[in-house]
From TrEMBL:
Residues 319-403 are annotated as: Disordered. Pfam families: LytR_cpsA_psr (PF03816). This is LCP family protein. Residues 388-403 have a biased composition (Polar residues). Residues 319-345, 352-387 have a biased composition (Low complexity). NCBIfam families: lytR_cpsA_psr. It comes from the Bacteria. Residues 71-226 form the Cell envelope-related transcriptional attenuator domain. Belongs to the LytR/CpsA/Psr (LCP) family.
Amino acid sequence: MSLVSVGGVAAFAGISLKTQIKSVSIGAKDDRIAESTSIGAIEGGANILLVGSDTRVGQTDVAAGVADGSRNDVTILIHLSADHTQMTAVSFPRDLMVDLPSCTGTNGATFPAADYQQFNTSLGEGLGCTVATVESMTGLTIPYAAEITFDGVIEMSNAIGGVDVCVARPIDDSDSGLVLSAGTHTLQGLQALEFLRTRHGVGDGSDLARISSQQVFLSAMMRKIVSSGTLGNPVKLYGLASAAVKNMTLSKSLGDTDTMVELGLALKGIDLSKVLFVQYPTATDPENSNRVVADESSATILNADLKSDTKFTLGANSTGRASAAEGSSGTASSGTTSSGTTSSGTAGGTASGSAGSGTAATSSPTATPSSSATSSPAATSSTLPSTITGQAASEATCSVGNG
């Protein structure tokens, strides 16, 4: 296909997408930053908040469960370094107890501040309120945000042809309906959504265990997107965006499809070992053992590095250890790749004193990211404390089920 025809297809796709986009304000300050500065020119790097809503309103493929209103079932802060050489995705537990700041909701109403609230209630007041909460917790400015529904997750997984996910032990979750044998499975559609939502089917059944399992999926998805050349191809990027926008609410700053594509192109040359998925550090809530609170000492380090755009690596023990017996050894079931894999490396752990246990087991004992500094000798760098758990996208890891 010639460059002219590629450009024509991309332009046509962009016009089509713009007619489908639903956008909202996330706050006057954040809206103005995005309006006046491109993603590539934001000083200190760009911050984007991705929120997965649990609303059932208008959803065609999710019948299980009942949810009044909407909650942020999944919340991930993406920080893209100013030089586009490192991307960090920080997952916030839905069961985290936080102080909600005063904020402006989607309909323009102002909501008062409220102390000691469950984090996933912030979306009930609008996407801008979830953004304001994360800004208050981290000290960061977040000019870009997107809320995606269940159907959106399903459509995006279909658009990339599914994601190959390793399961170290069988998963059987009666709540989400997910049943997977040990092995490697190609997950897409409703099954991909069930995997991302399962908590009773992985690890100790906590939300922290679910986050670790989500990191396994997202890392595998990043590897597939990079290997297929999607990030360097505007047509493929518009195709991926098209699968999502019908089921998304975007901040006004992302309402321009060119901005979404600009973000994707900014990532096209990134080293997967520099794409880090981390869990916001937590400890057990002393008032409720089923909830967590921020581990302030570790969170302060993470927040400072993100705010100063400091490059960092994960601590040597950030993912804990799992025995080889936890690796998968069976043949994957129908709709999966041809064979299971064997785990012989690390497994996702949790922050010291936290309420849950991790669920990832690496398929290679050499996959732990290096703790060396970045390639630029002038760049500042640090190593996060091992209480901050996570993995690099370059690591092939396995979700540890409950079987």
